[in-house]
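Recap for those who missed Tuesday's class. We walked through two folding examples back to back. For each one, the amino acid string is listed first and its predicted structure tokens come directly after. Nothing is annotated here on purpose, so try labeling regions yourself before you check the end of the notes.
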Amino acid sequence: MGEITAPESPVTELAQRVRQFVDERILPHESRLAAENDEARALARELSQQARAAGVFGSFYPMRLGGRIASLADYLHVAEQEGRSEYAPGILGADATLDAHMLDRHASPAVRERFLSPLVRGEAVSSYAMSEPESIGSIPATMTCRAELRDGRWHINGRKWFICRSQVANFATVVARSGEGPVAEAISMIVVPTDAPGFRVVRPLSLLGRWQGQAELAFDDLQAPQDHVLGAPGQGIALMQERLGLGRLLRSAHWLGQAQRCFELMCQRIHSPKGQLARLADKQLARARVYRVHRGIATARALVRDAAGKFDAGIANGIEVNLAKLAASDAVSEAADNAIQIMGAEGLSDWTALAGIYRGARTTHILDGADDALVSTIGRQLLMATRPGERFDPAYPSLRVSKAAE
């Protein structure tokens, strides 16, 4: 009986081309890209140009802006291949996907022309400035950065930190308190150019001893035109929630790509001459590691796809998104840890990608929503949805939460 394969579709074909590009043109240069210096940035720009020429750049940008895939569920197949290297999402334009969608939906014509058009052409880098040194990221009410509208211009003052790509970004979306009323009506998102007077990079910030493009920023009476606000003034909380839902799923898909790569490296070592010499395939603990890693990836993948399908259908999916993010974070962490254990001391070195993936995997439990905060939120929401008198449907848990909150 012949091998059964799924019929090839345009999405499958694109995913295969993305994987080929990542494996052949990015993976061989990871050690150079990790340097975070001018040479590394020049190499990343060169690879981005090659990606555009190969038709694998910006796959999930809005369709009217050159995107190739209309649904998030379909894009997941491509996103996993983009995530095989921690450097690929930046090179392939995937890091800009979230900002491309947010600006496409909510930006004024002036912002679209000045920032969005260069972004989707690969000529600009975006950044998102939310976290602050003196506030609690999961509690917007503690935010101290302020934006005051005077004479048709926003005047922004405050600090942000651990902001991705901020040292190389051409513009940033700044989240700031713009009013004195309830927090749901007092936060705004304002797009600002990074070369404007008052925008200052205070210092780069390392994560687990590794530079990954994060920095602390200061805004000293930074000014931006009134029409640089996204949506309308005071809509920041709603936009943050919209951004988090899509953003966590995009990140989760990329983490699954890294997890799958760790799984492959682990299996390659087990089947290698060195692994055969140690008879790794015959050892129950090695088999158990292979099983646990595969199960974690398969579980997280199913949760991500479930949340993405509901996103595409416009169905409430807050619980599903957070579950998917937590599961994907666990999957990449467990995959990296087990692959290193099988690889031995070599896995701790810079000779393989595992050490970098391992350190990056640990940050996933903090960035884009700390585990503790998400677990607490999910527990609260599930208890709300299962209160006496509620009709809880485990296949659509967020629907009951939404109705119970009304």
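Example two. Treat it independently of the first, because the proteins are unrelated.
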Amino acid sequence: MNNKLIAVLLSVIIASGLIYTHPAFAHNFGGDASATWLAKMAEIKTEIGLVAKHVGDKNAINYYSDALGEYWNVNDTREMGERNTLLQTEIPSTINATLSDALAGNQNAVNIDVSKLNGYLDESIPVRVDASKLDNSTVQALAVVFVQKEALEKYGIALNTTTNLNDMSQMNMSGGSMSNGMSMSSTIVNQNAYENSIGLATAAQSMFNDLATKYPGQSDANAKISTAFTKLVQDLNNKADVNTIMTDVHVHIHPVMISAYNIQGIDGTTTNTVPAVPEFPLPALLAVVSIAGVVVTTRFRSRLGF
């Protein structure tokens, strides 16, 4: 085979690798995305449960309607349709029905809506998340972290603080609760976001309790995390200052979860959270091959005067 022909073949491989797509890989969830879906289901259940507490309260329902929009959007509806057309229709329609019935002040209808929606959300989990990921403790622990992260975000909104509670680097390491063990009470400026933060933290705590039950071998770590979650929820209820809340999470919860459940990159400003269950789909592999092909082709072209 002459050099020109080799160069042409490599060019074809490169082009194929760069544009390759395959339906089987289009929406298969890796570790991160699997954890994200598990978290999303818990978050929607939390928001819809809080809607049921505020039937007839237009202000609160509008708040939770916006919150639900963060966790379920048109992309979720479209992607769900790739796996299950019934859930593609029923999940968003039941969310909308719940909000409409809540605005109308119909508590009985809302209770029925919530029960139906929770069933659909549970049904979506094995549809969207591979069995191997559902059985992976790292994925499940990461889902807990994602929900807890939302709780901190909502608490920051409740306080209208400029501090990013999910950024460990913004902790006050020299004063406040870190040094004297005392917590100052904070002023809540957004009651709905405050209630939301407690609801999400409680959901994360419940998710962790389920995880601890499944993996009793981590008894020492589970006990420490459980105690820290109890304190986090208590401190949120007591309107603790941001440093106290961040200490609960970044000092007492995250380090133990990282060690016990092999989670990477969940603190500080790192946004590329990757559990220790990586996937290497074919398009990524072809991209690597393509890069190598570019190098080889360039060398051939340089020799042949292309």
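Answers for example two:
The longest helix spans residues 191-214.
The CA atoms of residues 265 and 271 lie 8 Å apart.
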